[in-house]
Automatic annotation (TrEMBL):
Keyword Ribonucleoprotein included in the entry's annotation: yes
Organism: Listeria newyorkensis
Xref: NCBIfam families: S20
Family to which this protein belongs: Belongs to the bacterial ribosomal protein bS20 family.
Protein name: Small ribosomal subunit protein bS20
Annotated spans, Disordered: 1-27
Gene Ontology MF terms: small ribosomal subunit rRNA binding; structural constituent of ribosome
Amino acid sequence: MPNIKSAIKRVKTTETRNSRNTSQRTAMRTAVKKFEQAAENNADNAKELYVEASKKLDSAVSKGLLHKNNAARNKSRLAKKLAK
């Protein structure tokens, strides 16, 4: 545990950011997995789940969790699965 006040503050902020990033990353992955399962089963709500997954990917880019090209690649792959 750090003794310096600024280092203590950095530990606290790192913990809060880490937990926030983890929860957002988990939500994004869950949305993608839900869509992939729906696309495999030819579910009726696949289009809605695709939109939700795209929003989560875009949100992850704006938060700095993903690189924009990574999100674009994932969205492209999801769109291909939707078209099938």
